[in-house]
Amino acid sequence: MNYEHKSIESKWQKIWQETSLADCDVSQTRDNFYNLCMYPYPSGDLHMGHIRNYTIGDVITRYKQKNGFNVLSPMGWDSFGLPAENAAIKTGIHPKKFTEERISNMRDQIQRLGSLYDWEKEVAAHDKDYYKWTQFLFIKLFENGLAYKDDAPVNWCTSCKTVLANEQVIEGGCERCDATVEQKNLNQWFFKISEYSEELLKGLDEIGDWPSNVKSMQENWIGKSKGAEFNLNILDTDLNFPVFTTRPDTLFGMTFAVLAPEHNIINEIIKISPSSEEIKKYIKKTNAKSEFERMSITKQKTGIDTGLYVLNPINGKKVSLFIADYVLVNYGTGAIMAVPGHDERDYEFAKVYNLPILQVIIDESHSINIDQEPFTERGVLINSEEYNNLNSHDEASDEILKYLKEKGIGEEKTIFRLRDWLISRQRYWGCPIPVINCSACGLVPESFDNLPVLLPEIDDYKNSEDSPLANSKEFINTSCPKCGIQCLRETDTMDTFVDSSWYFLRFLDSKNNDMPFNKEIINSWLPINQYIGGVEHAILHLLYSRFFIKALRDIGMVDVNEPFHNLFSQGMINFGGSKMSKSKGNVVDPESYFATHGADALRLYILFMAPPSDGVEWNDGGIEGTKRFLNKIWDNFEKMSSIEIVKHNELDAEIIRKINQAIFSVTNHLDKFEFNTAVSDLMKINIELTKYLSSTQAISKRTKDYIVFNICSLLYPFAPHIASELNNMYTSQNIAELSWPIFDETNLTDPTYELVVQINGKKRHTKIVNTGTSKEEAEKICEIEFKLDLKNYKKIIFVQDKIINFIG
């Protein structure tokens, strides 16, 4: 008989809510465990990617609770920003109404999944009681010199009509809508994340268990480079500009120099260049390109010869000065010494413009030339005067750097790829930037007493070149908190990643009306023990959150260095060949599966379909298997209820040992996040239970209690509804309130096993033998029982996992 999942799931979800199973006392200071799933964008219904995330999180919550931990597992909503606003624009429903409807529906779906969350601590980024404190933290950063406004070339999404951070541009397109991203020069707000480059890099060695690929992605994005910086003088002028190189050993190979089109010396160049008009046209053309296009390795390099020359500082030779868009103003100094013989991009540019290519490094065997491609490896110097034959890796670089220092030409320097975080957006649906533009006082933060600066509910919220808030006179007109004169508010809103950079702090003190959070509570709970989310957040959210914690520490609001101790990045669930995403419209809604198969069957399939860190293509065929598995467990427990109870049954020892082995294995897999193999263990132990029940007509009460408690306990984190119901049917106890089972180390090994006898790799015989049977004993069995003459075989292989193979 199949179990009725709908009534059982509804029953236990109500019990968990009434008993406050998920509620956490954050004032407790012992055995705390902060288990956090990244909060979602409420821009649609849940899809299977969410289900995977929240199922993994719930397994950990329930497992840790049963091991005696005071678990905090909260939930909230990343409800400001592009995802929610784009969805609202698409549906024609006001962002606030759309967002709150989606939150209500997603909350209901999460609860129907059976996931335990402390809803008393729920937060939403668009709630004024939350964004009041986002604005408070912005002002704190501003007052401490960590937030500033400046002109800068920015990424502009032509569809979303807003600025994007570099991290939000994927292969030249907007990460949310895939539209083309162009470059614009705008006055924007930034956070000084670059001041923390070194600490963000070093911190990766101090955090707990993070996926190596996530660490590598952050390391590459921070991009630490050591090298030399020196000035290049423009011939026959008093102009000069600095360049940075990680390869001072190639300095003799410089055959031209390049400026980024946005370099601050360009206006002076235009005044004196014979190619001034061509330069202006080229810069205008460059402005229409995205940074991705400019860095592309597949497109032909472009540039313009200024007609000017610079001097190579090490040998005094003059080389041509170009302006080219493959050099970026926001990396290094925005200018380079070009060494085409030993740099791929310089080589491509030199080939296009027929510029000299000089080889100054060669391999030690002197066999490589640069006729077809540059030599980018280390070697020994040639064509470098007194530095010839020096090792390029260290000797030559050190000696040339020494020369530059002694001559006062240059210096050793370390730079980082990481740029300051651009946080202003020309969007309506976001946290208003709490700053006032005063003609007398300049940029003035709103007074704390006037927070929050409320986001007005306007009808015309669709984007144009300016922020929609610029059209709201009621919003923009205000008075200066310092001098009282009439002035205008900032009309940009904050990047949604600002909201998500501190939400995990608010969860710990979500009802605090006086401060964003209590410092002592934060210090006792952070860093978060386990953080769970997609690998797509490796750079954006995770890096920004790490910066936020360090900045808040430096202004005295927390005493911790990192937000997340352990990080688990679950693999993406794909559908139709691409990541399942609401913005792409390729989602699979769990709603129908709740009705037809139940939450437990869906949870088990999500966990069983692949290792949780692996990406996987959605295929709903497998859920039939997990549904059958649950029905078989139900049938076995029903059968067990009808078996005669006796004092002792000799067959009990075997099932007890098998369950003990399952406790050991499932516990081990849970600790390692090997959820798919843990589910496999559950299926195997149910097969053993089926065998046991088919072979006996009686069972001792002790054995029956052992089976019920342990199988229900092992099943509970994965399929909590049916596990709770089965346990309650037999014991009238709530399995959630019972401790995790403990395995007996002395009863893990089977006393016997089946020895498989192979001849030339093919199975010929089997024999049940005692565990620990040696190779010699196995050979003797084969001689006596199977009449094998061992002299006829060249080689005998005994594999400890129960196989002996005779080869001959």
Secondary-structure map:
Elements: H1 5-18, E1 32-37, H2 48-66, E2 70-72, E3 76-77, H3 82-91, H4 95-113, E4 123-124, H5 128-143, E5 147-157, E6 162-164, E7 169-170, E8 173-174, E9 181-191, H6 197-203, H7 212-222, E10 224-233, E11 240-245, E12 256-259, H8 266-272, H9 276-287, H10 291-295, E13 303-311, E14 318-324, E15 335-338, H11 344-352, E16 361-362, E17 380-381, H12 395-406, E18 410-416, E19 421-422, E20 424-425, E21 435-438, E22 442-445, H13 473-476, E23 477-479, E24 486-489, E25 493-494, H14 496-499, H15 503-506, H16 519-525, E26 528-534, H17 540-554, E27 564-570, E28 573-575, E29 578-579, H18 591-596, H19 599-608, E30 616-617, H20 623-641, E31 644-646, H21 652-671, H22 675-695, E32 698-700, H23 701-715, H24 720-731, E33 752-759, E34 762-770, H25 775-785, E35 795-799, E36 803-807
Parallel strand pairs: 1-2, 1-26, 3-4, 12-14, 26-27, 28-30, 31-32, 33-36
Antiparallel strand pairs: 5-6, 5-9, 7-8, 9-19, 10-11, 10-18, 12-15, 13-14, 16-17, 20-25, 21-22, 21-24, 23-24, 28-29, 33-34, 35-36
Helix pairs in contact: 1-24, 8-9, 19-20, 20-22, 21-22, 21-23, 23-24
